[in-house]
Amino acid sequence: MMFWRCPICQEPLELEGGTYTCSNHHCFDRSRSGYVNLLPVNRRRSKDPGDNREMVQARQKFLEQGYYAPLVQALCEVLSRWADGTSAPHLILLDAGCGEGYYTAHMAAALEQCGRNVDFLGVDISKAAVERAAKRKIPSCHFAVASVFALPVADGCCQGMVNLFAPFQAHEAHRILEDGGMLLLGIPGPDHLWELKRAVYDTPYHNEPKGTDLPGFRLQEQVPVRGQITLPDAESIQALFQMTPYFYRTPREGLQRMAALQHLTTTIEFLLLVYQKTGEEK
User: Fold this and answer.
1) pLDDT of residue 243
2) Neighbouring residues of 281: CB distance < 8 A, sequence distance ≥ 6
3) What is the pTM of this model?
4) Three-state DSSP class for 257?
5) How far apart are CA 165 and CA 192, in angstroms?
6) Is 91 a residue whose pLDDT tops 90?
7) For residue 14, what is the enclosing H or E element?
8) What is the CA radius of gyration of the chain?
9) Which H helix or E strand runs over 164?
10) Which of 173, 191, 215, 264 is 20 to 30 A from residue 139's alpha carbon, by CA?
11) How far is 79 from 97, CA to CA, in rounded Å?
């Protein structure tokens, strides 16, 4: 089944041996880990875009300890309900901004339990993250290094798309989804990590809620997820902080406060937004 398209000429890519090739003879080798790099050199804003190996390792270590289990459970329940209500015999689901594949693996397992025939596509701009995702060796998953703003995915080939806390481009989501396809967005809630921000900043702020309207999509469901987690040591707190945008924006004084924390209980809050593609963008 052809779902990847050439990032240079947009023609379909076919896998022959260990190489993806289009009709214009553009070639992309599949790595030993199993992923393919579909991010052209001239579209990279840096030599090694996205999260580096240290950040990816910290995030994977944090997530694998199950701190975000309530989110995983809600996410899998939403996808299972969607799959049960979808009549297509074969599903293609894109995880745009898949990172190291933690959520991708859980979603694939949940849909497998539903007995659905699914191909998962995972895309991230970080080579280090995609490499770790591919090393999970999930049979139904196919991973590529690529930008979510220029997805190397064929028009209308996906029944569903998931985007969790990653950069998002509504036009690309609309393009790759079939009519009636499902879009699932995960965003942080207003109180997410509030106690951590209080410990680090002089004047902490709540996350501002964003508008839910998307051109070409109808909002069908909003699923709130809320709880508390306790981090028992400085290493866990550091790993969590490295996963957030605050890591890049926090001044030295705040970083020093964060490094001094040895124990933390903080709120986690997320919102899952479920959309259906309705037609042409306006």
Assistant:
1) 82
2) 170, 171, 174, 215, 216
3) 0.93
4) helix
5) 12
6) yes
7) strand 14-16
8) 19
9) strand 158-164
10) 173
11) 17
